[in-house]
Amino acid sequence: MYNNKQCFDKAKKIIMIKYPANVFNVLKSMLGKRLEGGNPMYKLAIIGDGYTAAELLRLLAYHRQLKAVKILSVDFVGKRIDQVYPQLLGFSDLVCEPSRLDDIKDSCDAAFLALPHGFSVPIVKQLLEWGIKCVDLGADFRLKDPEIYTEYYQLEHGEPELLEKAVYGIPELYREQIKKTDLIANPGCYPTSAIIPLAPLLENGLIDDNIIIDSKSGVTGAGREPKASSHFCEVNEGISPYGTGVHRHGPEIMQELNLAAGKKLDITFTPHLLPINRGILSTVYARLKPGITGEMARTCLEDKYASEPFVNILADGVMPSTKWVYGSNMVDIGLYADEDNRRLILGSVLDNLTKGASGQAIQNMNLLLGLEETMGLQIPGLHP
Length: 384
What we know:
This protein is of the alpha/beta class. It has two domains: 4-186 and 357-368, Rossmann fold (3-Layer(aba) Sandwich), CATH 3.40.50.720; 190-354, Dihydrodipicolinate Reductase, domain 2, CATH 3.30.360.10. 35% of the residues lie in helices and 21% in strands. The chain contains 14 helices and 15 strands. The protein has helices at residues 4-18, 21-30, 51-60, 81-84, 102-105, 120-129, 146-153, 161-165, 171-179, 189-203, 232-235, 249-261, 294-305, 354-368, and strands at 34-36, 39-47, 66-73, 96-98, 110-113, 133-136, 167-168, 183-185, 210-217, 240-241, 266-273, 280-287, 311-313, 331-338, 343-350. The strands form two sheets. Strands 1, 2, 3, 4, 5, 6, 7 and 8 form an eight-stranded mixed beta sheet that branches. The protein has a seven-stranded mixed beta sheet with strand order 10-11-9-12-15-14-13. α4 links the parallel β3 and β4. α3 packs across α14, α9 packs parallel to α14 (354-368) and α10 runs parallel beside α12 (249-261). The longest helix is centred in the N-terminal third of the chain and has 15 residues, at 4-18. Residues 1-8, 14-21 and 23-32 have low confidence and may be disordered.
């Protein structure tokens, strides 16, 4: 029995005996993908040049079958990406190119879109028409209701029919749907931290309808563009709520948790800005239904995520720290139950740039392309 690499090498020898090297190269290109060791190497475009784009390139350096061949930019056209982000020196020598879609039409199998809201809609429409699969890290395809999108983003959605086509990209909940689509709405960082611990409890009817989600994020969640609210002197040595009652991740959380519960819930979501670079902590307060114990809630989460490579349910009495998941694609979840008062407290942490953005995007892309889901992502957190 031959493995994939042996079959590829044997076929290459046979072809090279009968045909000159240039013919083999033509045959190879006809396959549509560059072959390495018998496995396809998928060529990707990254559209955008912010923190999430840099994080994509950092993680793709570990990947055996995904290769970024184009990065489209606005602010850094003509500059090497390792000049913009020196941590990529020696790992990516891509040059930032103008945002011309025709340049990726025939050179890429799939694309990551790392753009502000409103910019992805026409780009995705065109890429899908060309047969290029898309993972959108922005907000343009997360909300199924175009009216809610308009309310929170102050924009009319240009292609509302694509909202139904897009699959919300939490693989732990929608893995099979992700495999069958060609458009992924990569979730927001706050929603990922809240939905993963809460969805199984709601699906199984273990908690009441009233839920409080108190979330805190590092400053990279605000993006790379300088603004007063993320200035060092404004953020350092302080913590403050923001977007109270109107944050754009609120309806995203509501949409997914209402689906999990099968009814409309009463959810209060308040985000806060922490003086750290990266990381999210969501502390969730819920009430156990009568007759439900803390052990039943723990068993529900452990059963749901026992085989999930990127979710840890921590031991009894252990609450998570953002430092434990720094730079990784992990979600760590701890829980405490006050059974006398039927109060359940969940602590959920993730890295907002990794599982909260680019890591989850690669996890989704792996599924889209039929690759091993964990490929390129089995990296522990960086601590201390």
